[in-house]
Amino acid sequence: MSIQPGSLVRAGQRLGLFIQPNTFELEAAIPERELSKMNIGKNVELYTENGGRVMGQVTRVNNSVDPQTQLVKIYLTVKGNNVREGQYYKFDAKGKTIVNSIKIPRTWLSERNTIFAVKQTDSTLFELPVVLEAIDQDAAIISGIDEGVWVLQRSVAGAFEGMKVVPQLPKK
User: Fold this and answer.
1) What's the gap between Cα 118 and its chain centre?
2) pTM for this one?
3) Which of 59, 87, 130, 169 is deepest in the core (most CB within 10 A)?
4) pLDDT tens digits, 70-92
């Protein structure tokens, strides 16, 4: 944009852009199930691809879910001297502490929120209902497994309830 003194300016013509170079609004899309972690005013730590860190704060939450992606947009105010326009960020939102839970590969979890466990009496598989606490692309955090239950720790093609297995117990 180059406007010289005495130049003709039309109504609505952009003359300049006011920016605040150290404060930006960042738009992020999150799954609807994660909205409870993203209240307005919540502080989050953002990470750049080169390892830099900066703090942000949730300032707005969209009320609608994108029908294609099933994600909800949230808006963060990000301040800092090392913040640049167009920069990509990742962030972790600290949620609630989940006691008596384990993190498993998502592939171990069935659509019915069950996993395979091994009956210790006859070494056969059975489906164990679990409580799905959180899930992402690769992993799930589940609870509802009693201490001492033997959990099948890899996907077995064609696994079914009653299938005989040979447990591989860790060496002590």
Assistant:
1) 31
2) 0.53
3) 130
4) 889 999 998 877 787 788 888 87
Q: Where are the alpha helices (DSSP H) in the chain?
A: none
Provide the CA 87 distance to its chain's centre, in angstroms: 19
The count of residues in the chain is 172
- Report CA 92 to chain centroid distance, whole Å: 7
**Plot region of 59 (φ>0 → left; ψ -120 to 50 → alpha; else → beta):** alpha
Domains contained in the chain, CATH given: 23-92 (2.40.30.170), 97-172 (no CATH)
